[in-house]
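Contributing new records

If you add data, match the layout below exactly. Sequence lines come first and carry their own label; structure lines follow with theirs. Keep one chain per record. Anything else will be rejected by the validation script.
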Amino acid sequence: MIVATTTLRADEVRYDRTASVATARGNVVIVDHGEGYHTLFAHLGSMRTAMGEEVDAGDVLGYGMRGGRVYIKGDVGYRVGIHMKAYEKLVPILVCGGKARDFFGEYMAGGMLVLLGMNARDAAQPIAGGFLGAGMHGGVMYVRGTVEPWQCGAEVGITEASEEDMAELRPVIEDYAQAMGMDAAEILSVPFTRIAPMSHRPYAKLYASM
């Protein structure tokens, strides 16, 4: 949530993270992430936000992840999870509680992406845009509910998550729910769709042999 938008003099350099007003240079926007965490954006050429406005997590999150976990409560933008890849025992996991724009999981090579569609700002918007998993050649994606074939890249297969899949997904959902103060049982009450690559080398035939 946006908790402050203001324009300040160049000599004001104080920032009080416990207050709803901060001082820094130029146009300033402060985002409240909850639990005492804030991000201050200063020196802005212009501002297109307002006090109290909810903002999504943005584009290209998780770019090239090689491990760790990213939990997002609300919506995300374009190309989230692009080029994610597991490295040895490091398996990246990104869970989005809201909805996503186009190219979710583009060129994904490993790890796990989860899209829940629950904490979305626009209920009428599809859970995801187009080209889900475009160029995907590794890893797995789980979407709560269903997706249409037109939303997915040509390189992926779409199936209902199996009991084996859910055994892998359930601990991730439980951890996410605890972190976000949500009910894991409610999240898991809807079947999940599994999206995975049909080939680990989808573009092999496009390259000339040496």
